[in-house]
Write a structure and sequence with these properties.
Elements: H1 11-19, E1 27-33, H2 49-56, H3 65-75, E2 80-83, H4 90-104, E3 109-113, H5 117-130, E4 138-139, H6 146-155, E5 158-161, H7 163-170, H8 178-182, E6 184-189, H9 197-216, E7 222-227, H10 233-241, E8 246-248, E9 258-263, H11 305-318, E10 323-327, H12 330-347, E11 355-358, H13 364-376, E12 381-384, E13 399-403, H14 409-416, E14 426-431, H15 436-443, H16 446-449, H17 463-476, H18 481-486, H19 490-501, E15 505-508, E16 511-514, E17 532-536, E18 542-546, H20 551-554, E19 560-563, E20 566-574, E21 579-584, E22 589-610, E23 613-633, E24 639-644, E25 650-661, H21 663-668, H22 676-690, E26 702-710, E27 715-722, H23 730-736, H24 738-751, H25 776-791, E28 796-798
Parallel strand pairs: 2-7, 2-8, 3-5, 3-6, 4-5, 6-7, 9-14, 10-12, 10-13, 11-12, 13-14, 17-21
Antiparallel strand pairs: 1-9, 15-16, 17-18, 19-20, 20-21, 22-23, 22-28, 23-24, 23-25, 25-27, 26-27
Helix pairs in contact: 3-4, 9-17, 11-12, 15-24, 17-19, 22-24, 22-25, 24-25
Length: 806
């Protein structure tokens, strides 16, 4: 590695330099995404000269075609979702009509919602820089000083906030916002693809509550949604707000060409466990949802994606290339930055100062310093979490490195789009983690470059979301029969009956009334339940919180808990007080909880009868108990010991997709009865790993169970279930496109070059059974059988009259 200070290399040349000196190429595919010219449109006639001049002062001579079309629709009173690429100028499309309305009507108001504070702050800077008379935009969130809040409630006409503040502060106190709500003309929902799963389901009801309260003050605002390129953007926006939405998806902005490289780290030497340099796998966890650890279940067979990303980041910096490396975890971002700095210091003292880490948890001032340094060139490399995916306008970057597939195509293109702005050519490298999904994608490039972006999955009908949200709505204004249609119709009426039976609501002639003294305590980012506080025992300092459902796995006694790069060991978990006491320690081991899980089928919503194979969707109850944990040495991954735990059972009612296969069909296909458990277990692991390919979920959002003879199905069965009470929509998505999902699963296993199973195919970083038993080849046979029968002409959709098959 040598420092290069000449003219910046073009992407293809840079890629050649990154490959220089390697014995075997890690490249599996290179895709050239061509440049695209922009298509301008005329300013809308209703846009005043004053408004045009304000944008012209910011360098906008005329809108792009998609901006003008979306702005015209919004100005005409139609709700719109703008779903175009990164840096396509979506904000101008909604700023034009909203600011025009504020200039035209001195009493009108606009509400802007963003999923992150950084994004709202970026928009606030843009709006303030326009310096339009009579419009003083204001940010209203948890950081807003109390003395400013009263002024904002009384006088602000463009308020920027987030769904959490709308839920906790504005809607419960709507009486104090009467003037603002009486004049509410537009609601902007930015980066709406971020609202998925349980969080998205909660936000959908928050928006319905906003519509209901606004109607109480005589307003029916127009909604403007902005989204990264996504599947079915209009459908997603309509599910979020419950209003008809027109999609604008034709992107008229220019785009620089992108050279996109798929990069698979090299195999490790089986004798030494080492490749070209030191490193270990950065996969993590246990075979259940919501247990995001940073541990390794099995020795990796490939070089760590973190180590590979750090080397690539250091190499690009030596060539003077401004580079952003996206890493999935906070700790990972710190590790990548640290390794890259160390490599650069070996080349030239002081060169390591050209690289830094960027993640949530830094102070705002620290983040702004890093952003400015990257923009002015004093910093060339940044290892960041997805805190930089949204909300910060960084231009002039030349390369992006992705340490692992970010989970969805929408995020992939969002992150890749951070480089190559203003028509510049750029390089993007996706470095595969040792994971079935990453391995599949780098060997099946069509799944990245020729597949539509997935639709955002959310389920407003989830009873564990709907009930608490109806309680919030009733606490704001009494619920009426007409309101129930807004919240879901029959399913909402059923939820109200349950709230009445529980004593939370009381029926009166004018509607249903909230009966409690305080407001409902509802967490938008979970499905209810108390958060467990993580407290440093010696100081009493609150380090953070853990979701109640995850506490047994993440903060059991003896667990290693990571917080902002610092390791702690849990001394005690008090479930009654929802508190885990910890002390700071840097142990040489990681901890892996071991659990036992049972699953019962409660009901079947839908199923497909395919002869010896059945495919089902329905409600299940999952009962799990953490019974112990392993300690594994960090340096080698060896098991040091296994320690018992005495924790209570936990139950989860959720939605699952499952398939059954008759024992006779398995035997006829060549799978011995003794190998049923290993075949099904391996297929289950791979199916969980590949589900994010077709649903907007993360591996940690879902869990699974396989058995050679389940008592409810009386057959060999594989279950994959949502890891959230009531479900999050992922199982429904999997059921709907099961053949595509399981086909990709089969391909990922069959194409892996290992002999008996590895983290790239059937070993799971989440397995509570230590990845045993596993039968890789038999898993392919099982999936061949399932796919063949589902594709056969006799596969029939049947009414869900019973939950079993044989």
């Amino acid at each position: 590695m040598q420092v290069v200070t000449s003219v910046l290399p073009q992407p293809a040349e840079l890629l050649d330099r990154l490959l220089h000196g390697r014995q075997a190429t890690p490249l599996t595919h290179v895709e050239r995404v061509p440049a695209r010219p922009g298509v301008r449109a005329a300013w809308p006639e209703w846009a005043t000269e004053q408004l045009r001049a304000a944008f012209a002062n910011r360098g906008v001579d005329a809108p792009w075609q998609h901006q003008a079309r979306a702005a015209d629709l919004l100005h005409a009173g139609q709700s719109v979702v703008i779903a175009t690429g990164t840096a396509s100028g979506k904000s101008l499309a909604y700023h034009l009509p909203t600011l025009a309305r504020l200039l035209d009507d001195p009493r009108a108001s606009v509400l802007y919602l963003a999923p992150t504070k950084a994004l709202a702050a970026d928009q606030l800077r843009t709006l303030t820089s326009l310096d339009l008379p009579g419009i003083r935009p204001a940010s209203y969130d948890g950081d807003t000083p109390r003395e400013e809040r009263e002024w904002i409630r009384q006088h602000a006409r463009f308020v920027l906030t987030n769904p959490d503040m709308l839920h906790h502060g504005i809607l419960p106190g709507h009486a104090a916002w009467t003037g603002f709500l009486r004049r509410l003309s537009y609601v902007v929902v930015d980066e709406c693809h971020a609202y998925r799963g349980v969080f998205g389901s909660h936000v959908a009801h928050v928006l319905r509550r906003l519509r209901r309260v606004a109607a109480r003050y005589g307003r029916d605002p127009v909604f403007a949604f902005a989204s990264a390129t996504a599947g079915d953007p209009a459908g997603t926006a309509e599910r979020l707000a419950g209003v008809p939405v027109t999609a604008v998806t034709e992107d008229g902005s220019p785009r620089g060409g992108v050279t996109f490289a798929l990069w698979e780290p090299p195999l490790l030497d089986p004798a030494t466990g080492l490749a070209a340099g030191p490193g270990r796998s950065d996969t993590a966890g246990t075979d259940r949802p919501d247990t995001a650890g940073t541990v390794v279940d099995a020795a990796p067979i490939r070089r760590s994606a973190l180590r590979e990303t750090a080397d690539l980041l250091a190499d690009t910096v030596t060539h003077g290339v401004r580079t952003l490396a996206f890493v999935r975890s906070r700790r990972g971002a710190e590790i990548v930055a640290s390794m890259a700095r160390r490599s650069l210091e070996e080349v030239a003292p002081g060169l390591g100062d050209q690289v830094a880490a960027y993640r949530a948890g830094y102070l705002r001032e620290e983040r702004r310093v890093l952003e400015r340094a990257l923009l002015d060139g004093s910093l060339l490399g940044l290892a960041a979490t997805n805190a930089l995916e949204l909300g910060v306008d960084l231009s002039g970057l030349d390369a992006v490195i992705l340490a692992g597939y970010p989970g969805t195509l929408a995020s992939l293109w969002q992150q890749a789009g951070r480089a190559g702005r203003s028509g510049r050519e750029s390089l993007c490298v996706l470095v595969a983690r040792d994971d079935p999904l990453d391995t599949y994608l780098v060997h099946h490039p069509d799944a990245l470059f020729r597949r539509p972006v997935e639709a955002t999955v959310l389920d407003p009908g989830n009873p564990y979301v709907l009930g608490p949200q109806l309680a919030c709505a009733a606490a704001e204004l009494p619920l009426t029969p007409a309101d129930l249609e807004l919240f879901g119709g029959r399913v909402a009426a059923s939820a109200v009956e349950g709230l009445v039976a529980a004593g939370a609501l009381r029926r009166r002639p004018t509607g249903w009334y909230w009966t409690q003294r305080g407001r409902p305590d509802v967490d938008l980012r979970g499905a209810g339940g108390a958060q467990v506080c993580v407290v440093e025992a010696t100081t009493g300092r609150l380090l953070g919180t853990v979701d109640g459902a995850s506490a047994h796995f993440q903060v059991h006694p003896g667990a290693v808990y990571l917080h902002q790069g610092v390791s702690y060991v849990v001394d005690d978990l008090d479930l009654d007080d929802a508190c885990a006491l910890v002390h700071a320690e840097e142990p040489d081991f990681t901890t892996h909880p071991r659990d036992v899980t049972d699953l019962s089928v409660l009901s079947v919503r839908d199923y497909v009868d395919a002869g010896p194979v059945g495919l089902f969707l329905g409600e299940v109850e999952v009962t799990s108990q953490v019974v112990g944990y392993q300690r594994r040495r960090i340096s080698t991954g060896e098991v040091m010991d296994t320690r018992p735990l005495d924790l209570p059972e936990r139950s989860l009612r959720t939605v699952a997709v499952w398939w059954t296969v008759s024992p006779g069909a398995l035997a006829d296909a060549g799978v011995a009865a003794a190998d049923f458990p290993g075949a099904l277990h391996a297929a289950e692991h791979a199916a969980i790993g590949l589900l994010p390919l077709v649903a907007t979920c993360d591996r940690w959002d879902i869990g699974g169970l396989s058995t050679a003879a389940h008592p409810d199905t009386e057959a060999p069965t594989v279950f994959v279930y949502d890891g959230h009470p009531g479900g999050a929509g992922f199982a429904e998505r999997a059921f709907g496109i099961a053949s595509e999902w399981l086909g990709a699963t089969r391909a990922a296993i069959a194409s892996c070059g290992c002999e008996s199973g590895c983290p790239s195919c059937v070993q799971s970083p989440k397995c509570g059974n230590g990845n045993s038993p596993l039968a890789k080849d038999d898993a392919v046979t099982v999936l061949d059988l399932v796919l063949g029968e589902l594709a056969a002409g006799r596969a029939t959709r049947r009414a869900p009259d019973h939950p079993t098959t044989s």
